[in-house]
Design brief:
By secondary structure, the chain is of the alpha/beta class. The chain has one domain. It contains 7 helices and 3 strands, in the order H-E-H-H-H-E-H-E-H-H. It has a 3-stranded parallel sheet, with helices on both faces. The longest helix is centred in the first third of the chain and has 14 residues. The protein is flat and about 45 Å long.
């Protein structure tokens, strides 16, 4: 997240040059459990069970997720060694307990990100846990549409 503000500012300034007020969205893979240790165990379990052949296929030029037009970012991704952690695909990873996850999500707003898309490993169970444990923290901090700020997130 260290370069997030700079990246957001670059995008928004590009829009301003053309008279546009651009919004910035982020994609976040969330692993949230009662404790950080439990969330890290889930992340490690996902990585330990990753199918490296599938991850390699995603890197295959012209066959996977590599841009057939040859953009540098995609070529660089295709050329680097496959890592099991890529089984947790889909943007910035936010891993921890509810307070840690809420604080990390608050960082997006503090860095100028206008909205985020949340990705979960198992929506059936994880979305309910997120709704029960993280959303109330975000609501109290005023970080949801229509929510009124009541208190800052716990440190």
């Amino acid at each position: 997240m260290r370069n997030m503000r700079a990246a957001v500012d670059r995008v928004k300034s590009f829009g301003h040059r053309y008279g546009k007020d651009l919004k910035v969205a982020g994609n976040v893979f969330v692993i949230c459990r009662e404790t950080e240790a439990e969330a890290r165990r889930v992340f490690n379990d996902i990585c330990d069970n990753a199918d490296l052949k599938v991850i390699e296929a995603m890197h295959s030029p012209g066959k996977g997720l590599v841009d057939p037009k040859g953009s540098k970012a995609f070529i660089d991704k295709a050329e680097r060694p496959v890592d099991r952690s890529e089984a947790v695909w889909g943007g910035i990873r936010v891993i921890g307990n509810p307070e840690q996850v809420a604080a990390r999500l608050a960082d997006f707003r503090a860095n100028g990100v206008d909205c985020i898309t949340l990705v979960f490993h198992d929506y059936v169970t994880e979305l309910k846990f997120f709704a029960d444990h993280v959303l109330p923290l975000l609501e109290r901090a005023g970080l949801r549409l229509g929510a009124k700020p009541a208190a800052a997130l716990p440190s």
